């Protein structure tokens, strides 16, 4: 089963991203949204962990990036930006959704 | 796709209810079905008709009421969580001896069985929380 | 109550009492028990604190709901996965947790442990197998 994992808290506030990465298997997707988008930025303390998650596809929610002043150049490599319609598609394309709040 | 949505946080305090709303809207726009939006924990506070947010900001409660009306959504506020937090409809008002009710348009108060049923009957459960 | 049987996972990552999530999630589990689904609970991170033995709220004037975990076996909720790494990070072992059991009617009512101590990797496989994940 492929899972869409969602992470909505900053990795510096809570360990939701770390928890999620411990459970995200190959072939799964991780969507960072709300304050979770800070986990998608390059050069921060979690960037290595994100890069190391093999077989996991990472997404960040565009509207939440924009709200926080995070331009796409500031994102780590391999992060795909999606909008809410994309969020819905990800939920449809994967077999289930696991929320790491 | 048949979605169920769980909202765990109240209006303004957390972005959860905003995210849930935007997701719901996008899902409906894409032609999907939302069989229930279930408000739990502080999420029940999305169902009060007593908010007066500033004019220059979004009206979260009204937004849900309008979306609910436009798409005939089943927006359920958990009775146990509502009793703890003071969200009251006519029935609860009578049952618990309250002198007012404050449930917003389009919301109904019901039991946790509705959340379980949503999990059983939907194809995807989306949880928005903190 | 329904023909469909889904694998329901209740994800618990928070400590008790500091917030209401632990208790209100348990309320969902109790109500959910009547729906005859294939239920599992996972305790990850601070969620493992929910199962600590010896909770006494008499001086906090808060509801002590820890005994409710002991009743789960009677509700046919018998799969409580506790993540080993989360216990270890917190300096805890199984001995620190409440002894939670259930009676297997298919095995002459033998008393069995409800708590399943699993590694993160094992729990990841369990989670992967679920149909529905409730987060609180």
UniProtKB/TrEMBL annotation, chain C:
Gene3D superfamilies listed in its UniProt record: DsrEFH-like
A family per Pfam: DsrE
PANTHER family listed in its UniProt record: PROTEIN TUSC (PTHR38780)
InterPro entries tied to this protein: DsrEFH-like, Sulphur_relay_DsrE/F-like, Sulphur_relay_TusC/DsrF
Domain of life: Bacteria
GO molecular function: transferase activity
Provenance organism: endosymbiont of Escarpia spicata
Listed NCBIfam families: sulf_tusC_dsrF
Protein name: Sulfurtransferase complex subunit TusC
